[in-house]
Amino acid sequence: MNDRRPQPKGIDRIAALLEPAFPVRMLGFGLVYAWSTCIWDLPILESVGFGGPPQNDASWMLSAALTPLACIAGSLAGRTRELAEFRSMYVLAPALTSLGTLCVVACPHAPEPLRTLLVACAGIGTGIGPVALILLWTCLFARTETGIVETVVPASFAATLVCALVVPSLPAAVSVATVAALPLASGALLLLSKHALDTGAVACETPDENGHLRVRHANIARMFFVIFAVYGIGCMLPAASSATVPAPVEANATIVGMTFAIALAAAIVLFSRRINLEALFRWITMPFALAIICTPFDSQQAIGLSRVLANVVFTGIEIIMVLYFVRLAQKTGRTSTFFVGIGECAAYTGVFAGYMAQPPIAQLLAASALDAKTLCLLLVGAFIAVTLLVPRHDATLDADTASETECAGVEGIVAKSAVGKRSAPHPESASAQGAVAVAEALVEHRVRIARSHGLSKRETEIFLLLAQGRSRPYIRDALVLSKNTVATHIRHIYEKLGIHSQQELIDLAEGAFERE
Predict the structure, then answer these.
(1) What SUPFAM superfamilies does this protein's entry cite (predicted)?
(2) Which CATH code fits 400-515?
(3) Which one of 33, 154, 191, 441 has the minimum C-beta count within 10 Å?
């Protein structure tokens, strides 16, 4: 494609050198989750006795309670306006998160009168700040071309993985400074990404020509409960285990689980036809059920496997949830703040409820009122029941898309291109008839080009859509193909035509027609 954008200057030029394949600056999204992974496991907190259950720490309790409230408040406030429209949030969100981190570390060392104030600041900062930062990132993703987002979001969790590997091995003071700097770095990269999107350095999402779709309120409620239940059940699992898991085993389980989840999420994005909750649950049902089954065994190998699988599920569902709700916002015309706020509220409410359920479950097990294996059997049954609530009809699979799929053959595309939009009136004037004749001739010309270069039927379908200026996400939706399949067909089309971009394809399809 011919790049008509002005040459980058200053910091844009440096950023451009650092991101030859995709916007590296957008990987800052993963730093938010890196922060949440590391903050409560800082070595300095363990040295002052924080190594026990997190429910015993007042700052954690306040943070865990405020986080879902912040999510739902953001969702309600974002019904008509994106959070990104409040410019002050770009500074307040990372600053509040970083300040809360420092207060968490300072709490155990402060005298009693000051400790209460620090606990309040820690809870507010770590409960509200990261939620705002996540919502700001998803506002950015809602404006970004879907193909870029589907690459960036899974890749950004590699930053989370790196931090989980590095931070625990750092000296206490360095680890604190690193974790406190993560939200600031994420906020800075967010501003750089926003600037790149505003200036055209990163492609924007093309508005859907078919109009906005409607989503049922019942489906939103069901999605909320499903996500809540999965996180809640997962956070109950440690209470059902009587085995003590050494810290290195726990850390390695987190690393292995996150690595596998990133690969799994990438596979879903590349090879699934649709990124929706139903597809997600087909992927996570087996590992999550196996994680529950392994929990009651005393073997450290079984417990380690359970932790790995749980991390796979939690990391994978977070990645796909963000992608799904951003896509849903684009399709429905609602704000991403609204949808992502609902999803994150469900997740964090489930986390809070699961941790709160651990003490009573432990008491029941200790009193022999409940057997661990029976508990896990009940949890497996509950999870299976929850999967039945996953909405089968998705707002991204509306009737317009189905119609596109039905006319995906060459003849259907030719007919559709000839008559224009479905809602267009029948031509009555001579000029309108002439315009239709030109459109028919153009499509026939494009079909001849495709056949002369030996394109297959599917490649011809994609060639015609590319010649109309359609994006890859549009083609995937219209023809019901995976991202990887569309990319492979486009690569073959370019090779057969001897071109390197969609703009060259359009020039080829239209230039020869004009000469005729």
Answers:
(1) C-terminal effector domain of the bipartite response regulators
(2) 1.10.10.10
(3) 441
